[in-house]
Amino acid sequence: xxxxxxxxxxxxxxxxxxxxxxxxxxxxxxxxxxxxxxxxxxxxxxxxxxxxxxxxxxxxxxxxxxxxxxxxxxxxxxxxxxxxxxxxxxxxxxxxxxxxxxxxxxxxxxxxxxxxxxxxxxxxxxxxxxxxxxxxxxxxxxxxxxx
Length: 147
Prior knowledge:
The chain is of the alpha+beta class. It has 3 helices and 7 strands; from the N terminus they run E-H-E-E-E-H-E-H-E-E. The chain has helices at 14-31, 90-105, 120-124; strands at 3-8, 47-53, 56-64, 73-81, 110-116, 129-137, 140-146. Helix 2 links the parallel strand 4 (73-81) and strand 5 (110-116). It is globular and about 40 Å long.
């Protein structure tokens, strides 16, 4: 059973931080064949949503406050589930967990994501609305979505 945790950067153990970076690299760099600068300096100021099962990080997202993303919005990004754990509803639970964190800490703030275009319906099921057209981000079709 997956358990979700909310952590600030300084509260992450070195092992968990390693596992987060390894998961993100496995999914975004290797699986999606996308070379990009994952460690971008924003992790130190982000809130980290971590899904753990049997002491292994299998789900992850980071929340950026408005001074790190857009002044009008908070942002959820680097949303990922370990490939072999997909299809169990963990992605839905992770997004709900992140929205809950934001609603608790910043109840009046809007949320913006840069979603991979093929996940449009997934994010719509959580109340996100597509804004604008499709664009390429690191060679992958994306769309802006807000809630």
